[in-house]
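Thread title: Can someone regenerate the structure for this chain?

I was given the following input by a collaborator and told the matching structure tokens would be attached. They weren't. Posting the sequence so someone can regenerate them.
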Amino acid sequence: MEISESTENFVAPPPDDAIFNAALPTPNNPPWNGWTAFGVWFASIIFIIVLPNLFLTPYLFSKNLNTSDQSAVYEFLMTDPTAVILRLASVIPAHIFTLFIAWLVVTKFNTFSFRQTLGWGLDKFKIWHGIVLFILFYAIGLALIKVFGEVETEFDKLLKSSQAAVYLIAFFATFTAPLVEEVVYRGLLYSAFQRRFGVTLAVVLVTILFTVVHIPQYSSESIPDYATVIMLLLLSLTLTMIRVRTNNLLPCIIFHTIVNGIQSIFLILKLWLESAEPASGASGFFLYFFK
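Best answer:
Regenerated them for you:
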């Protein structure tokens, strides 16, 4: 029986699952572009700005405050325990809405796996790596305070407003902020930017965006707490480089959680010990869930 030349050269097509796997997105080849990622980032900022106003407006009217006196309104919002709690409570829907929009983009409306697309492996990253890095950051933070001194920021005022505020801040900083912020910055933004601009420029852009957004929270009368800002810059750079090194988002979330979680424990312990001053400056800079 003769076999034709066309039959001899025949190559069987790959199985359907091989074609499907080849088409799946990866953390460095995401199914979204830079404009889409920027849009999710912008939406997350809007949620943090708008939702507190929705929560606070009815309470402000009930207090008959003179809203034309901006300084009085600001002081009330920063010191009144109920106003602070309402402001903090708005973080819950802000994080939920941000994460939902991010999920739609990452999964392309439930077409792809959320975890696989962002990268859910550790790639040799260990928990002790995060703890060692935290100790290093804390030492650098203390050194920067010696150089620049401390500034009482908006964040410090929130911590001083009530015990409930401390507990809420510790909760959000540990259990929601690391996930939401890493999905937005090291997940959506970095993945799209590195494909469009290359790794170096993507690292610079994500690091700066993350830091700049948090500066107003760590300022007082437009004067930033320079020690905290520098530490935020270093932390953002470290988180982004972890993403570069591992090609996965999960290690970034773990390290972010370690940093915020340890600081949350410190805050609660100080509260229990009835310390005269809540954590401030570099000892509180890690808890920055307010975008």
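Residues 34-62 form the longest helix (29 residues).
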